[in-house]
Amino acid sequence: MKTILIIVILFSSIASSAQEVKKIKITDLAKIISESKQPLVINFWATYCVPCLKEMPHFQETVKKYKSQNVSLIFVSLDLQDDYPKKVEATRKKLKLTLPVQYLDETDADYFCPKVDTSWSGALPATLFINNSTGYRKFIEDEISKENFEKQVNAMLIQKKEK
Fold first, then answer.
1. Per-residue pLDDT averaged across 58-63, rounded?
2. Which of 45, 53, 64, 117 has its CA at 20 to 30 Å from residue 92's CA atom?
3. 137, part of any domain
4. Which residues contact 155 (CB under 8 A, 6 or more apart)?
5. Residue 114 in contact with residue 27, Cβ under 8 Å?
6. What is the pLDDT of residues 88-123, one digit of tens each?
């Protein structure tokens, strides 16, 4: 009985730690973007951004629908340092986000924004769609409806690489 309890506790702690919001630097995120071998969506958000919170659940729902096509999604929080990890983690739980949530550990938007997209003013929400295998890249600095998000995912999947 003790062994079973220990195993349950061990698996519970592994499962909960896998869902923790991890810190990431822009150099790490830029590497993920450039080296991604599958269709990837990166959504930039913050706990104080109402449009961000509104769109995140349908982003997750849509990406899960495209799981068989290896579409992945990373939610990247741009919250203030004082709001990490407590407020960011609480929001992750409240929205029932099961896909990766990371916290961008950067404070200089003039440094990190152009590394994501040269057109990014720093406004939220912002979403990057990238498929390195087809050469597809689209950056949207605005709220995205459920229908438009799915349209963008489809475009990312069918876009042919230009020679």
1. 97
2. 117
3. yes
4. 129, 136, 138
5. no
6. 999 999 999 999 999 999 999 999 999 999 999 999
